[in-house]
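RECORD TYPE: inverse folding
INPUT: structure tokens
STRUCTURE:
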């Protein structure tokens, strides 16, 4: 009986009828090669891999495409190298900054825009605003060790953070700003996680192909008094992130 490692596909993903697509065989062999090369190791070219495994370059290309989408490899200049482990972000009220620092990585953010607009009715209830009330929209690219890994949009009433455009450092933690400068603590939140494809604009900002799957998180947060506080739309690269949570009975 084939050895089964916990967390891996059952029977290594081989269907019961036993017929394995060529690209999957190549993918499994290249995956073994990645372990030997180690993080940052340079893969052989598509032509070299095709000759090594006696398959077409298109078969190799399909295998590499899946490994790329899974975050096992990444493009670097004109070559392909072994990617590092995915970032594990907790599904909790901890900020992005705290989650990345816990893994020994350096968090950062690039400001795309901070603007005020009149709150539309479909946003009002989620942040405790009246329709037409002034609302902030803060949009930033998320970084880990200077690598672009996501895009975050935050919506909050101007009345809750009236000096956001003057007192807040765009590359710092927004949750830290609310807590330390405004005395606002988080109470609880509702989150929804789904997979999406980035829009052309989002893909350009994050620096990924539009076909790369993304993890999208919608969060509605409330403060310590149970009042609606913010809405956040966070888009994370599916090849660089996984999410964890602890469940209780």
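DESIGNED SEQUENCE:
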């Amino acid at each position: 009986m084939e050895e089964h490692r916990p967390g891996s596909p059952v029977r290594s993903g081989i269907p019961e009828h036993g017929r394995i697509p060529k690209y999957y065989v190549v993918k499994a062999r290249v995956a073994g090669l990645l372990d030997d090369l180690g993080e940052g190791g340079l893969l052989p070219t598509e032509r070299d891999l095709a000759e090594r495994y006696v398959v077409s370059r298109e078969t190799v290309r399909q295998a590499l495409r899946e490994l790329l989408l899974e975050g096992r490899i990444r493009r670097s200049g004109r070559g392909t190298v072994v990617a590092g482990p995915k970032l594990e972000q907790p599904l909790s009220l901890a900020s992005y900054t705290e989650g990345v620092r816990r893994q020994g990585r350096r968090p950062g953010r690039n400001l795309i825009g901070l603007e005020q607009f009149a709150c539309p009715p479909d946003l009002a209830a989620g942040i405790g605003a009246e329709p037409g009330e002034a609302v902030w929209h803060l949009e930033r690219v998320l970084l880990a060790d200077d690598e672009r890994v996501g895009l975050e949009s935050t919506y909050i009433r101007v009345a809750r953070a009236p000096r956001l455009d003057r007192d807040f450092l765009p590359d710092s933690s927004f949750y830290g700003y609310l807590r330390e400068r405004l005395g606002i603590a988080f109470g609880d939140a509702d989150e929804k996680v789904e997979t999406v494809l980035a829009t052309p604009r989002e893909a350009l900002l994050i620096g990924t192909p539009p076909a790369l799957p993304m993890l999208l998180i919608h969060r509605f947060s409330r403060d310590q008094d149970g009042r609606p506080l913010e809405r956040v739309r966070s888009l994370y690269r599916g090849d660089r992130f996984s999410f964890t949570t602890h469940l209780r009975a």
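NOTES: The CA atoms of residues 111 and 170 lie 6 Å apart.
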